[in-house]
Design a protein that fits this description.
Elements lengths: L12 H9 L1 H15 L9 H27 L9 H31 L6
Helix pairs in contact: 1-3, 2-3, 3-4
Length: 119
């Protein structure tokens, strides 16, 4: 690859290393973003909901890092994934979406169950 110098013909472990290290920036940005979105969406108002979503994001990010590592160890380049890698990526994305959806569904149910407080 032109900018990074990563291998495009075979697996390169530097890709997984890069993605894994940037979790240190991405996950706090997810938390900050959810905090900002909580002003608009009442389902995100609870700190427990936002924390659970950050945990789902962390597991998804760890899965992505593992997927990239697995792809590189099998000798496949980042820009040329095989069908098994794509299937694993779709499965990972489905798990993350399902986890986030479950958390939001439970949180929505809690928000609706709490009666509005009279002032």
């Amino acid at each position: 690859m032109p900018v990074t110098g990563w291998e495009t013909g075979a697996g390169d472990l530097r890709v997984a290393h890069f993605v894994g290290l940037h979790a240190l920036q991405v996950l706090p940005l997810v938390a900050i973003g959810l905090g900002m979105l909580s002003r608009r969406f009442s389902v995100l108002a609870g700190a427990a909901t936002r924390g659970a979503l950050v945990i789902v994001a962390a597991f998804g990010y760890a899965g992505l890092t593992g997927l990239l590592l697995w792809q590189a160890q099998r000798g496949h380049a980042l820009i040329h994934p095989d069908g098994l890698t794509l299937l694993a990526a779709v499965g990972l994305a489905a798990l993350v979406v399902a986890g986030a959806g479950l958390i939001l569904a439970v949180s929505t149910r809690r928000v609706r169950a709490v009666p509005a407080q009279a002032e």
